Amino acid sequence: MSDRLPGYRGLALRALLDIGAEIGDLIRIIKDDTILEGILIPRSEYGDDKHVVIKIKSGYNIGVEITPTTKLERIGAETKPAFISPPPPERRTDLPTVTILGTGGTIASRVDYRTGAVRPVISASDLYSIVPELSDIAFVETEILFNIFSEDLTPRHWSIMAETVAKHIARGVQGVVITHGTDMMGYSAAALSFALQNLPVPVILVGAQRSEDRPSSDAATNLIGAVLAASRAPFAEVAVAMHETPSDDAIILHRGTKVRKCHTSRRDAFKTINAKPLARIIDGSIQMLAEDYRPRDQNRKLILKPNFDDRAALIKFYPGMSPKIIDWHVSEGYRGIVLEGSGLGHIRRECFPAIKRAIENGVVVAMTSQCIWGRVNMNVYSNGRDLLAMGVIPLGDMLAETALVKMMWALAQTKDPNEVKNLLLTNVANEFSERTVENIEPPRAVK
To answer: How far is CA 28 from CA 45, 199, 304, 327, in A?
Structure first.
């Protein structure tokens, strides 16, 4: 493996060394009747030794297998690609003030041509400057909190987010936008929904499925929708702003406690579960879809409860699950367990003694369902009724992820298991509904 050609070895490395190529050079590959040109980029250290990877003009990376008949040519040394933030547009002070808080994720990422990887390198200020349309929507201020992918966030990061949002709301901003990685955005949205109570203005989390440098990126459109919502929406809640469909027609706003990422890569990956979405943005107009929302009121006093206790676990039940899993969490000092049970809220009877021991040791145990739609009803079958009698708390149609976050939040508010139970059963931020809403997906946007 060469320092000049990181990730390359074997046949591919020899072919590149033969033409004197370096990372960042423009090269031509002639393979059979196909001619390809692009910038040579590094390979993964775990890749094979037969492929050369180039970035073509469309912005996509392609790998070409090197065979004895493949010809490579070095066209020339290109200026190594690097992102230079353009100057921000002129700001208008007559517009509402919105703070954008940066935490990282794909929406704040670009390809690092030194390594070929997607890295969180764009600050919130960069996002403002590369989406000049924002200057016609709001007077945007920016602050970078973290520069990490969402899988690296912890409950401590949720606390910092909540405290920072509270600081900016106290200054009088009309809304707050948080740029966030999509994978764990539902967890953070739920956490902020519990930590930021009695909100006077909207707090909008926004992400992107595809980084800003890709031709199919959804970053700019999502960010514009988020700033529109933060500055002008009539509600004052925590919400997630993402594409409603794969096209750029509309941005949908999901309530922070009812949203789940349902696809790994589609631009419309996020769905509101067991409820209506809060609102839709189409052609710059905000259409409210939910009737039961908290209205914006700049004079309302925010109640900040930013603490979380991470001694809580989400345990997904599966056939043959050992009760030792539950015993282990008790022995390790966990104070709360959310069970993701089957169907209406069940797990195998062999686990019942372990659950009983957990509850007797002061551990709060709650039940959600593995099903996406519907709610737990533990009164229907004997296993469910026995779990209820044991003290397991049914959480209705609450998402399992939201239930875990709420458990962490409730455990930080009190040390009394009975008070934790009462908090779990209190509808703090529309995390559960009294009845099941029979809508599978929100209505599609129509232009």
So the answer is: 23, 57, 58, 61
Per the structure block, which two tokens stand in for 59? 């912005």
The amino acid that residue 281 corresponds to is I
* Helix axes 400-413 and 185-195, enclosed angle (nearest 10): 40
For residue 447, what pLDDT band results from cuts at 50, 70 and 90?
Answer: very low
Confirm if 412 and 307 have CB atoms less than 8 A apart: yes
Positions annotated as catalytic residues are 106, 182-183, 261
Q: Please report whether residue 240 resides in a domain.
A: yes
Q: Which CATH number does the domain housing residue 63 bear?
A: 2.30.30.520
Same domain, 43 and 162: no
Q: How many CB atoms lie within 10 A of CB 94?
A: 5
Percent of the chain that is helix, strand, coil (3-state, to 5): 25, 25, 50
Where residue 339 sits, what CATH number does that domain have? Answer: 3.40.50.40
Give the number of domains in the chain. 3
pTM of the model: 0.82
Q: What is the pLDDT of residues 148-184, one digit of tens each?
A: 889 999 999 999 999 999 999 999 999 999 999 999 9
Q: Based on the domain organization, do 229 and 378 belong to the same domain? A: no
Query: Which residues lie closer than 8 Å to 231 by C-beta, 6 or more apart?
Result: 95, 96, 98, 137, 138, 174, 175
Domain that holds residue 420: 312-424
Contacts of 39 (CB under 8 A, 6+ apart): 24, 25, 26, 27, 54, 55, 78, 81, 113
